[in-house]
Each structure stands twice: as structure tokens, then as C-alpha cells.
Design goal:
Layout lengths: L2 H41 L4 H16 L2 H11 L9 H26 L3 H9 L4 H31 L11 H12 L3 H36 L1
Helix pairs in contact: 1-2, 1-4, 1-7, 1-8, 2-4, 3-4, 4-6, 5-6, 6-8, 7-8
Length: 221
């Protein structure tokens, strides 16, 4: 079977796997950003308890392999009465794992804003919520966009690990097709790599676009 025939046979199946990977990436990415924003605010908080909880969460999820976290969520939690299907376990674990890294990105962005701006906002009578919304966070977004998009790209790649608990995502479908193709797995894996590139490269271009727009906005002020 030549390259063209293998590709014609494989692409329809890989497209289904691509859809699953895109779904996992999108849902996990949204949840990870939400977790990261909340975590970053807690990490930069003046309240000791919030910083303590944040520190435990970040150290656990950044200090252990994602695969072990996934296995614990999917295989161990049922022993405690918490049973999740493969999609729930995969999305939840990926969101918490990436959320830990995004939390650090957000926390670093908040801490990079001069304290004088916070003091000025409070002196004008702003509540902490308005201070964060109108003064701090618009500047934080400008700082964190490049590392945030970089982390989201890593999240897309990490979806491949979820295939180990049975999700038929892009890498799982590719592996099955490579086994079926016999002597030509390189064609299948090359197509898998191309499909991952199709997802990740637009994210990179989007980050460049947003970064330029934000820079132009601030330069015009």
C-alpha cells in the first residue's frame, strides 16, 4: 500500500480523532484558564489561607507527572466512591494540571504590576474587585498572553496522554492505524503530527495577533 492510499484510508479516521482532541483541548483549556485566574488571584492575595491553599495545589500538580494524576483520578478515585468516565477524568485532570501552571503565570503577572497602582486605586475609593477589574487585570493580560498561549499549546499536546485511559483521540486513532498499516507506520504518524500542527499553529498566530493589538492599544493611550 503506497503513501497516497494509506493517507486516503487514514485521514477520515484521523479527522474523527482530531475532533475528539479539539474537543478535549477546548473544554480543558477554558476550565484551565478559569482555574488559573482564580488560582493566580489567590496566590497574589494578602490572605495567608488563600496563599497556603494555592501553594499546596500548585506544588502538587506541578510536582507530579500528569500521567500519575490521570491514573489517580480515573483508577483510584472510584475506590472512594467517585467514578468518572474517560472524558470527565481526562478533561478534569488536564484542566487542574494546566490550571496550576496558568495560576503561576497569572500570579507572576499580578505581582509584576507596581504596588503604587494598587494603592492609588484604593485611595480613589475603589473596592478590591474594581481595582482588579479596572486597574490590575487589563495590565496583567498584556503581560501573560505569550506564556498563557504557550501553556495552552502544551495542553493540546498533553491531550495525547489521555489516550492511555481509552479515549480515542488523535494519537489513539493514529496508533491503531499505524498497527493496522503494518510496514508503513511513518505515514500515519506523520499525518498525526501534521494534525497536531494544524491545531497548535493557529494558537501561536492568534497569540501574536492579540499581543500586537494589545500593544497598539496601550501605545495609543
Amino acid at each position: 500500500m503506497d503513501v497516497i492510499e494509506i493517507s486516503k484510508h487514514a485521514i477520515p479516521f484521523l479527522m474523527k480523532g482530531l475532533y475528539v482532541t479539539a474537543y478535549l483541548s477546548f473544554i480543558s483549556g477554558i476550565l484551565a484558564i478559569i482555574v488559573g485566574i482564580i488560582g493566580g488571584i489567590c496566590g497574589a492575595s494578602k490572605i495567608f489561607l488563600l496563599r497556603w491553599v494555592y501553594s499546596i495545589y500548585v506544588n502538587i500538580f506541578r510536582g507530579t507527572p500528569f500521567l500519575i494524576q490521570l491514573y489517580i483520578v480515573y483508577f483510584v478515585l472510584p475506590s472512594f466512591g467517585i467514578t468518572l468516565n474517560v472524558y470527565e477524568a481526562g478533561i478534569g485532570t488536564l484542566a487542574l494540571n494546566s490550571g496550576a501552571y496558568i495560576s503561576e503565570i497569572v500570579r507572576a503577572g499580578i505581582n509584576a504590576i507596581p504596588k503604587e497602582q494598587s494603592e492609588a486605586a484604593l485611595s480613589l475609593g475603589m473596592t478590591p474587585y474594581l481595582e482588579m477589574k479596572l486597574v490590575i487585570f487589563p495590565q496583567v493580560i498584556r503581560i501573560i498572553i505569550p506564556p498563557l498561549v504557550g501553556q495552552l499549546i502544551l495542553l493540546v499536546k498533553d491531550t495525547s496522554v489521555i489516550s492511555l485511559i481509552g479515549v480515542f483521540d488523535l494519537i489513539k486513532v493514529g496508533r491503531e492505524l499505524a498497527i493496522a498499516s503494518g510496514e508503513n507506520p511513518i505515514v500515519i504518524y506523520s499525518l498525526v503530527a501534521l494534525f497536531y500542527f494544524i491545531i497548535c499553529y493557529p494558537l501561536y498566530c492568534f497569540s501574536i495577533f492579540i499581543e500586537k493589538r494589545v500593544r497598539l492599544h496601550y501605545d495609543s493611550l
